[in-house]
# Entry
Amino acid sequence: MKVVKKIGWVVVIVFVIAQFFGPEKNEGDLTTITAFVNETKPSEEVHKILKEACFDCHSNKTRYPWYSTITPINYWMADHVKVGKKKLNFSKWSEYSLRRKAHKMEELYEEVEKKNMPLDSYTWTHREANLTARQIKLVVDWAKQVESAYEKQKTTK
Ligand code: HEC
# Structure
C-alpha cells in the first residue's frame, strides 16, 4: 500500500511539472485563408463547414479549447495539426501548383465522402464537425466542381 501511495505521488508531481511544458501553438493569421476562399468560392454554408470542421488542423490558425492547455493533450493535438497542415494547408493555397490544387481537391472530397475527415477524435469533442449527409454532399459537390475547374485550367495551359 505504501508503495502504491508513493507511486501515486510521483505521478501527481510529474503531471504538475509537465504543465509547465507545452508545444508551440498554431496561432497564425486567419486572413491567410482568404486566398483559398476567393479562389475556390465555397458557398456560405460550405465555408462554415470548412471553418468548423477543417481549418483547425488544415490552416495556420487553430481555435484552442480550454482543455488544450493541459499536458499531454496539447502535444497530442499539436501533432494532429502538424501532420494535418503538412498534408493540406489552406493557408498556403496560393503556393500550391495547379496540379497540386486539383489533386488536393480530389483528396478532399474522397476523405469527406469516406468520412475519414474530420478525424473521429475531433468530432467527439466538436459536435458541429460531425457532418450530416447533407453537409457532406454540399462539400463533395463543391470540391468536385472546383477540381474540374482546375483540371480544365491544366489542359488550357
Ligand atoms: C483534428 C485534426 C483534423 C481535422 C479537424 C481535419 N483533419 Fe484532415 N487530416 C488530419 C491529419 C492528421 C491528416 C493526415 C493523416 C491522415 O491522413 O489520416 C489529415 C489528412 C487529410 C487529407 C489527406 C491529404 C493527403 O495529402 O493525404 C485531406 C484531403 C483532409 N485531411 C481533409 C480534411 C477536411 C476536408 C476536413 C474537414 C471536413 C479535415 N481534413 C479535418 C487532421 C485533421
